[in-house]
């Protein structure tokens, strides 16, 4: 049996009781180590909590490790632990498909992920459009396909959850060229970096998907004891220090309900200015809507 | 302290370890009883599992009960339990706002909800647009605002999660007129009912948001031991018996990735016919896209 188990967001104790019972039944326990991190836990604290040794599965070895995971799961109970919920990444879906092909039983034990816990910022989940990923820009690679997706969401008034890049195990290419495989220190995109990239792309495209004054919510360490929110404009958040990772950002759509705004104002430094920014931003797609009607 | 605790989808043991520890610290425990049900649990089995008495909070009494909850939370630890995750309904958001106003500390302990666990059907979460609610039609009330929202999602190729109505405590009006307050038996919308309503609205509107041949996924008892999926057309699902509640439906958007389709085919009775339906449906919004470009 292969147990696919979501770990939730922060603490070892964020696993469900059913998930913990399953881990304790497993002979081998794998933890995916490339799509996210459990903020208030380490491999060691998890091992202690589960009473099991953990093998970390990295993206670069997931193919060969999948074979190992599946071979083990044919004989014994095996757990594959995923930060957040189980189906956050296509590689996890792929693992389930391969297990099925080999006739291995799969049980999924779900948990919270940023995709639903983001409701903690006060915006209603059913008013979110598609989520988009924002990756670290490099000198030669500045992918901006998120722009069109944000535009699509905002045209119909929906909020957009921006998922920020993490790099937890990047090979150090300088060292690699000398024949040594070493890894760079982990990097987590900050709210400020994300907002700077968004501003850069809008400046280049000038299609008005959003402006520097578009209201957003910075989310720090969602689900942890240091969870915090800041409601401000995109420009303001591009200069905001959101503290320790992990971060996410929500860009508001124009369908902002009074109750949502009331909740958000608690996170705004200048409540009147934030209200004004929301109102101004709501006019941005009015022309589109009139054209449609 | 007010603990807002998500219970997940099905079993008493779907609560997180941290959530359970919090419940055990609480003097009073409330369970919201109007937005969803925990499929494989009863009030009694939860009380036994927690070692605590539970008070069910109903929609009709939530206002007055909120006062009671907040008064208690000023003095002691109080738990407010929510099926799924904490921020599924606006009434829960409202409770947090009122707690804050009264200076009561609030801690949220998240869990899985249909909003993220729906990934178990094989469709990628970041390709979902806004979720829509489908309510029971009555003779005089057949609200169809979901239609425009599905259209918005499908124009940009996104999948739509349809959340099906439940009625767990409807007053029996015939009895009420005789002066007796009694309740009708609980009702849960089935996949077939949902799809029939969708077909009726398309027939009336004829705007082509979807057709009887649009591919969908029926989801039964997500996260429970009897979880099952069926991939078929809207018309087929309007005649499909999805078994015991709770049910949900996903309507596909045209952005279907090969990996998504591969996963879904496992749930199709006729794989070739389902593939053909996906392909045919993808052409539906091609004209729109060409017009845009």
Automatic annotation (TrEMBL), chains A, B:
SUPFAM superfamilies: Tetrapyrrole methylase
Statement: the UniProt record of this protein carries the keyword Plastid: no
MF terms in GO: diphthine methyl ester synthase activity
Reaction(s) the record says it catalyses: 2-[(3S)-amino-3-carboxypropyl]-L-histidyl-[translation elongation factor 2] + 4 S-adenosyl-L-methionine = diphthine methyl ester-[translation elongation factor 2] + 4 S-adenosyl-L-homocysteine + 3 H(+)
Residues annotated as binding S-adenosyl-L-methionine: 9, 85, 88, 113-114, 164, 222, 247
Any single GO BP term: methylation
Keyword Methyltransferase: yes
Keywords: Methyltransferase, S-adenosyl-L-methionine, Transferase
Pathway connected to this protein: Protein modification; peptidyl-diphthamide biosynthesis
InterPro entries in the cross-refs: 4pyrrol_Mease, 4pyrrol_Methylase_sf, 4pyrrole_Mease_sub1, 4pyrrole_Mease_sub2, Dphthn_synthase
Role of this protein: S-adenosyl-L-methionine-dependent methyltransferase that catalyzes four methylations of the modified target histidine residue in translation elongation factor 2 (EF-2), to form an intermediate called diphthine methyl ester. The four successive methylation reactions represent the second step of diphthamide biosynthesis.
Record protein name field: diphthine methyl ester synthase
Organism: Dekkera bruxellensis
């Amino acid at each position: 049996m292969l147990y696919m188990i979501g770990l939730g967001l922060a603490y070892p104790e964020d696993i469900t009781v059913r998930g913990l019972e399953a881990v304790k039944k497993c002979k081998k326990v794998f933890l995916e180590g490339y799509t996210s991190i459990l903020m208030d836990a380490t491999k060691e604290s998890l091992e202690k909590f589960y009473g099991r040794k953990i093998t970390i599965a990295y993206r670069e070895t997931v193919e060969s490790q999948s074979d190992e995971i599946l071979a083990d799961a044919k004989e014994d109970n095996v757990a594959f632990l995923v930060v957040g919920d189980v189906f956050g990444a296509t590689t996890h879906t792929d693992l389930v498909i391969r297990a099925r092909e080999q006739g291995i039983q799969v049980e999924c034990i779900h948990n919270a992920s940023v995709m639903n816990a983001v409701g903690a910022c006060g915006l209603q989940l059913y008013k979110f459009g598609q989520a988009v990923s924002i990756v670290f820009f490099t000198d030669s690679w500045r992918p901006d396909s998120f722009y069109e997706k944000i535009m699509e969401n905002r045209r119909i008034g929906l909020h957009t959850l921006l998922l920020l890049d993490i790099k937890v195990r990047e090979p150090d290419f300088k060292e690699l060229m000398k024949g040594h495989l070493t890894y760079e220190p982990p990097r987590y995109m900050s709210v400020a970096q994300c907002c700077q990239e968004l501003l850069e792309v809008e400046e280049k495209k000038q299609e008005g998907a959003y402006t520097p004054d578009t209201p957003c919510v910075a989310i720090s360490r969602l689900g942890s004891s240091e969870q915090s929110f800041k409601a401000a404009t995109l420009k303001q958040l591009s200069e905001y220090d959101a503290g320790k990772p992990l971060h996410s950002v929500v860009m508001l759509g124009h369908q902002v309900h009074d109750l949502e705004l009331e909740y958000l104002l608690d996170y705004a430094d200048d409540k009147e200015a934030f209200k004004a920014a929301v109102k101004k931003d709501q006019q941005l797609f009015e022309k589109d809507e009139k054209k449609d009607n």
